[in-house]
């Protein structure tokens, strides 16, 4: 079973919006549909675009330390993006 981590950045005022909850559920749905194990979703909640992305930094640090993560799911531009991280090659596609 492939192991997956996810990442999303959200504005502070949108965190409790139903669409954000839908996005968070989408990580689980995509993993369930593909038979993947969702290990963790990193979430940056920011009130300004200039704020540091602490969760993103932590995610990259964890990826450097762990070698058992096969896929990174990113929510960007209204889509879930799938980045395969195994085998030293990185390939990205839009989740269906």
Provide the fold topology.
Layout lengths: L2 E9 L6 H17 L2 E10 L7 H12 L5 E6 L2 E6 L6 E4 L2
Parallel strand pairs: 1-2, 1-3
Antiparallel strand pairs: 3-4, 4-5
What does the model show?
The protein has a 5-stranded mixed β-sheet, with helices on both faces. Helix 1 links the parallel strand 1 and strand 2 (37-46). The two termini are 19 Å apart. The protein is of the alpha/beta class and 96 residues long. The longest helix has 17 residues, at 18-34. It has helices at 18-34, 54-65; strands at 3-11, 37-46, 71-76, 79-84, 91-94.
Mean pLDDT: 83
- In percent, how helical is the residue content? 25-40%
Low-confidence segments? none
Task: Please provide the ordered H/E string of secondary-structure elements.
Answer: EHEHEEE
Number of strands: 5
Largest sheet properties: 5 strands, mixed
Strand arrangement, largest sheet?
2-1-3-4-5
Class by SSE composition: alpha/beta
> Count the helices. How many?
2
Computed over alpha carbons, the radius of gyration is 13 Å
- What general outline do the C-alpha atoms trace? globular
Share of β-strand residues: 35-45%
N- to C-terminal distance: 19 Å
């Amino acid at each position: 079973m492939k192991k997956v981590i996810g990442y999303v950045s959200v504005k502070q005022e949108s965190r409790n919006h139903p669409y954000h909850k839908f996005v968070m559920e989408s990580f689980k749905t995509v993993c369930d549909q593909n038979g993947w194990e969702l290990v963790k979703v990193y979430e940056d909640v920011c009130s300004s675009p200039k704020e540091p992305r602490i969760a993103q930094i932590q995610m990259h640090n964890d990826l450097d330390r762990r070698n058992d993560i096969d896929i990174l799911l990113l929510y960007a531009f209204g889509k879930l993006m799938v980045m395969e991280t195994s085998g030293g090659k990185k390939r990205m596609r839009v989740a269906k």
